[in-house]
Write a structure and sequence with these properties.
The chain is of the alpha+beta class. It is built from 13 helices and 16 strands. Strand 1 (about 100-105) and strand 2 (about 110-115) form a beta hairpin. Helix 2 (about 30-35) packs across helix 3, helix 2 runs antiparallel to helix 6 and helix 7 runs parallel beside helix 8 (about 225-230).
Length: about 425
């Protein structure tokens, strides 16, 4: 085998030029700097430049800030519009955007740490509005969940999964994260959830993003949370926690009331309790119940039958039982968002030592994930060899990794691509 070398500077991530060009044309850097303000003069880099550097790490296959020093600097310096900074500058920018951690003591004497970062969360929403990803006037479905992130940071507490970590509250609309609130690992999802949701809904209202439907798991099955979402959204769907009262009422459902349905590959039976009064017994809601036969044929301790029962509390009187269950099961799509953030945008490798800084990092990387979906959707409209559902790894292999260099010809700078793929539809 013979080899030859060349000192010609060729960028292996030539496709990233198109990403930066689109963000510049959409005015994203300007939006970032207008919202976050100017850094002090001697720092040298604006917030928009720091954020674009961090975004570039994930768009070129990196997974931590140090990759920009060790592997990516020389390549990113060949991208038009990039002012490349160091990993220390990126981490310093994250710390500057963090907010103080609030400590609360529960009635049982347990200390809880919360981190509320309104400025960066507001930027997250402004970016979604600016790019047109959230522009419907009809109202959206808001999903809420808490994600356990295992990490051995300095201030991390033990979680219910028996690991050290954090448990942030995350609100999302479809595949877009719209609000993140930092919580330490020992703070259960139920604790102070009304306050967390209230802050999320307040920010959404300020950006004129209306919530029509709210969907959450059993941690939201609390009287104050149900009352809040009843006021702030038109409809809600919350997994109900089992109780003796519920089991007693489920027992009154007759065999004729159960309806057999098939949702995907799952066969089940559904029914409803039209007048269900949980909590203080004053307000009536609808309880949609589903049951699935147990494969082990083990009888349920409450019902005495070999079924697994689940129930959804809702105020929706229009949809039938099957529609309610199918809609609630759509929460699985929101769960995939956590997988994307963990594996594609750095949540599995939090960079800082403290909750406040790591919360700022998680919100920023959620912003990058939203921008990624915007960029991919725009490019997929023009290139038939891209699809809008690609994960970022496939996008990097299919689009970003193309050898390229800037050359001068005819008094112009031209991006020369070494590929047979047609990128020309992206040039306007």
């Amino acid at each position: 085998m013979k080899i030859t070398t060349s000192e010609s500077k060729v960028n292996p991530f030539g496709g990233f030029n198109f990403c930066i060009d689109l963000l510049e044309k959409e005015g994203i850097p300007r939006l970032i700097d207008q919202h976050l303000g100017k850094r002090v003069l001697y720092t040298g880099f604006d917030y928009s430049q720091i954020l674009l550097n961090q975004l570039a790490i994930y768009f070129t296959g990196g997974d931590c800030a140090e990759d920009i020093n060790d592997h990516l600097r020389s390549h990113l310096q060949q991208v038009k519009g990039m002012c490349v900074c160091s990993s220390d500058t990126i981490l310093r920018g994250i710390k500057e955007l963090s907010t103080p951690v609030d400590s609360l003591i529960s009635p049982t004497g347990v200390a809880h740490q919360f981190n509320i970062n309104f400025p960066v969360n507001a930027l997250l929403l402004k970016t979604l509005k600016h790019t047109g990803q959230l522009n419907s006037k009809e109202g959206y479905t808001l999903d809420y969940d808490n994600q356990v992130i295992a990490t051995e940071k300095y201030d991390a507490k033990r979680t219910y999964k028996q690991c050290e970590g954090y448990q942030p509250g995350v609100a999302s609309i479809g595949e877009h994260i719209v609000y993140i609130e930092g919580r330490n690992g020992n703070s259960q999802a139920k604790y102070q959830q009304k306050q967390t949701l209230g802050r999320a809904l307040e920010l959404l209202a300020k950006q004129r993003i209306s919530v029509r439907r709210f969907r959450a798991d059993s941690a939201s099955y609390q009287q104050d949370v149900v009352e809040l979402v009843s006021e702030e959204s038109e409809l809600f769907y919350i997994r109900a926690m089992r109780s003796a009262n519920m089991e007693q009422q489920i027992g009154t459902i007759t065999a004729e009331d159960w309806k057999k349905v098939r949702l995907g590959i799952q066969e089940m039976e559904v029914a409803q309790i039209a007048d269900y009064r949980p909590f203080d017994g004053k307000t009536s809601y609808r309880l949609v119940v589903s049951r699935i036969k147990r494969k082990d044929k083990q009888s349920d301790i409450f019902s005495g039958q070999a079924y697994t029962y689940r129930a959804i509390l809702t105020n929706d009187q229009a949809w039938d039982d099957e529609q309610v269950v199918a809609f609630y099961n759509g929460r699985g799509k929101a769960e995939k968002t956590f997988d994307c953030m963990n594996n594609d945008f750095g949540w599995a490798k939090l960079p800082c030592s403290f909750l406040g800084e790591n919360t700022a990092f998680m919100i920023l990387t959620a912003l990058y994930a939203n921008l990624y979906r915007f960029i991919l959707s725009k490019f997929a409209e023009k290139l038939d060899w891209l699809q809008s559902n690609f994960r970022i790894k496939k996008f990097i292999f299919r689009f970003i990794t193309v050898a390229a260099k800037w050359i001068k010809t005819g008094r112009q700078e031209v991006l020369k691509l070494y590929t047979q793929k047609d990128y020309s539809p992206l040039v306007t």
